[in-house]
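Project outcomes to date are best conveyed with an example. Our students and postdoctoral researchers have been running inverse folding experiments weekly, and each run begins with a structure described purely in tokens. The record below, which covers 471 residues, was selected by the lab manager from last quarter's runs and is presented without edits.
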């Protein structure tokens, strides 16, 4: 009886979690000879420097079909070997996240010592997956002058619209929106249906299930994947799903740095006498805005243990349109001090580390950790829906620590079974429980609990069971 129950549970789990397997990037196809007959038993090897094991091997089945799944994004060459036939090498295959490259080949009779190398355009159309998605590769991120955030890159997709952020700036220009609680929507959907993932696992903020609490430097990721139509069965909402693919080290040491700044002197202004005559005292403008990050990755043990670390900092302070500090914050009737314009402030830093360990030829373990802090000295200042929050009514959010702990283990049990187990724990110091009043009037908008702290954790995990190759 217990045996039947166990088998039933395994079947149900396999069916429920199959979409997670099929959505991973892979290479598949059919091997035939010159007459068009299928060739079983062909050894297929996928090679790439992005694989810590360097090469992944499978064998074609009785129908001549093969499939290599759970590959890292990057450039691959595929070698096909069968006694009595020439060795064929297919080069220049580019894999992006969630993409299945279909490579059908034809082997010719000849000596196995003879090698035929075929170079051609990499497949551009995924004929196996129905999910509509776009991938922002590292080449695109480093080339296009867009904000270095998933929201800034998401605006490049036709039809996507933006939601608000902590500082009430929707469209990012020169990094002025900062890095907090970014949201996207498409096809008339809600920003509340958005999902933010790291390596396929949710990083939702405790108070905002549609966004990620932690600020993570852009250089910590190799790609951004935007799923926005025909989401798979393992997605509970119909909104935009943003998956951050972490960068990994390699067998060679490499690093880099990025820095951007938007000084107030570089900003244009349309503030003229006509606006003054309409009662506008001051416009919104940049006070201080810069962003910087450094990264380093490489081997601790070649082909066995890789590391990758990133550190980033940002400041995004902006003067608020027509809003000034009060001459006396304790007065019932507030009189603005026109020499002190209100400022929406935010800044933060984060350090990211990732380890990749090829424990055995069939077992791989990864660990991913972020540690950071975000600070909002004037949280909620400005227009919040129908309310106008004055600087004295804003909230001083300190120590909003944001950490993520993630670990995965994948095991190729056999040519027919791949097992993967993962867990993620985003840990956020909830802003609503770590605040300081600026004046007695701040209690009108949000309660303050001096010295109180609350740490919330959101846990999610995945178990993927499927065939790493079809034989």
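After processing, the design step wrote out the following sequence:
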């Amino acid at each position: 009886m217990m045996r039947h129950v166990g088998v039933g549970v395994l079947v149900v789990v396999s069916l429920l979690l199959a979409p997670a397997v099929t959505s991973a990037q892979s290479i598949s196809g059919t091997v035939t000879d010159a007459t068009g007959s299928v060739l079983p038993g062909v050894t297929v090897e996928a090679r790439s420097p992005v694989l810590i094991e360097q090469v992944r091997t499978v064998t074609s089945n009785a129908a001549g079909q093969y499939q290599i799944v759970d590959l890292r994004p990057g450039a691959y060459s595929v070698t096909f070997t069968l006694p009595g036939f020439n060795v064929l090498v297919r080069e220049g295959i580019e894999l992006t996240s969630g993409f299945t490259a279909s490579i059908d080949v034809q082997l010719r009779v000849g000596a196995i010592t003879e090698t035929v190398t075929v170079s051609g355009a990499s497949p551009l159309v995924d004929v196996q997956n129905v999910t509509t998605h776009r991938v922002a590769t590292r080449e695109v991120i480093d080339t296009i002058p867009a904000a270095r955030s998933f929201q800034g890159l998401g605006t490049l997709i036709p039809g996507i619209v933006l939601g608000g952020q902590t500082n009430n700036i929707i469209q990012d220009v020169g990094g002025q929106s900062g890095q907090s609680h970014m949201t996207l929507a498409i096809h008339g959907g809600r920003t509340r249906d958005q999902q933010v993932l790291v390596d396929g696992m949710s990083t939702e903020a405790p108070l905002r299930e549609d966004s990620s609490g932690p600020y993570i430097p852009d250089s910590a990721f190799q790609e951004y994947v935007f799923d926005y139509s025909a989401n798979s069965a393992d997605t509970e909402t119909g909104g935009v799903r943003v998956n951050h693919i972490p960068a990994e080290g390699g067998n060679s040491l490499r690093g880099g740095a990025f820095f951007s700044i938007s000084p107030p002197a570089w900003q244009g202004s349309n503030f003229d006498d006509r606006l003054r005559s309409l009662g506008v005292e001051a416009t919104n403008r940049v006070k201080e805005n810069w962003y910087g990050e450094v990264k380093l990755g490489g081997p601790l043990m070649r082909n066995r243990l890789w590391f990758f670390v990133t550190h980033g900092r940002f400041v995004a302070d902006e003067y608020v349109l027509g809003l000034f500090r009060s001459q006396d914050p304790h007065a019932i009737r507030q009189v603005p001090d026109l020499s002190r314009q209100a400022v929406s402030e935010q800044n933060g830093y984060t350090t990211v580390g990732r380890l990749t360990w090829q424990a055995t030829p069939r077992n791989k373990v990864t660990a991913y950790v972020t540690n950071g802090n975000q600070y909002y000295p004037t949280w909620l200042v400005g227009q919040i829906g129908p309310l106008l929050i004055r600087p004295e009514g804003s909230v001083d959010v300190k120590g909003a620590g944001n950490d993520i702990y993630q670990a995965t283990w994948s095991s190729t049990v056999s040519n027919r079974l791949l097992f993967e187990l993962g867990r993620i724990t985003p840990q956020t110091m909830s802003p609503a429980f770590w605040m300081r009043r600026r004046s007695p009037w701040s209690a009108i908008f949000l309660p303050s609990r001096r010295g109180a702290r609350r740490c919330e954790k959101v846990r999610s995990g995945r178990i993927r069971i499927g065939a790493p190759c079809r034989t």
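The chain has two domains: 21-119, 132-466. The longest helix spans residues 2-22. The training component of this project remains on track.
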